[in-house]
Amino acid sequence: MLNKQQIETFKNDGILILENFFSEEEVVAWRKQALAYHDYPITDDDWRAAIRKVNSNAFKLIDEPTPYTHPKMQALYESLAAGIIWNGENELVARAPEMHREWLGARTPHLDFPVYDSIRTLVNSVFYLADVDPYGGPFMYWPGSHLDSWEYFKESPKDYMSQGDLSQDQIFERITSRVSREVQSFSGKAGDLMLWHSLILHSASVNKSNSARLAVIGRWGNMLKNGETRFDFNKSIWDEWKFNGQDLPVLQ
């Protein structure tokens, strides 16, 4: 499904954005489900109260798009790591409108360590259920930082999953000090899909729009066998991957 150029972009940047990946019909149906789950908030205060009240981890979309249930996502993930039996889950992350807050850009860069799951996360996803502009609470990321993370953990493997003496914040700060590229934001239309390597530094941001930011974030990988480590950082960062790019026009 992906061509060789797109796979090289993903390998170099750790990010790949596919516009209009999900159909309008799918996104409209999922947005209705998300609004109903939050009991149809209207005002900023309504949204803040609704987000505090519900458990985002408990929400599941009907016809949920995953690499093992959604045909288009299945083909997409097969292009990146052929033969993997994908596991993981989606999480609906809503951000209330905060039009009067100061825009500070990205917050503190971090990684998502799958502490409570026996899973080796590889390629994660994020898409929006409504359009998100550059100041509307977009997902922020540092392109290429997956390579910096890998090199850091190669030198200090115990710091992955915070198994050593350093806290997560200290680890993320040390990786951030190595990053040379500027932070970017994933803003776009409802239904645009962004893939991101699980070792990409990323961050939340303030939603200064007049409507809630509704993002579906998926974390995907393969299950670990008994006693298996998540990564051997002495190997290539792509050791667990099997790319299957085709000489096709660029997929939008």
UniProtKB/TrEMBL annotation:
- Name the domain of life: Bacteria
Cofactor(s) for this UniProt protein? Fe(2+)
Keyword annotations for this protein, in alphabetical order, are: Dioxygenase, Oxidoreductase
- Keyword Zinc (UniProt): no
List, in alphabetical order, the Gene Ontology terms for molecular function in this entry: dioxygenase activity
Designated name of the protein? Ectoine hydroxylase-related dioxygenase (Phytanoyl-CoA dioxygenase family)
Say yes or no: keyword Oxidoreductase present. yes
A single Pfam family it belongs to is: PhyH
Taxonomy of the source species:
Bacteria, Pseudomonadati, Bacteroidota, Flavobacteriia, Flavobacteriales
Which InterPro entries does the entry link to? Phytyl_CoA_dOase-like
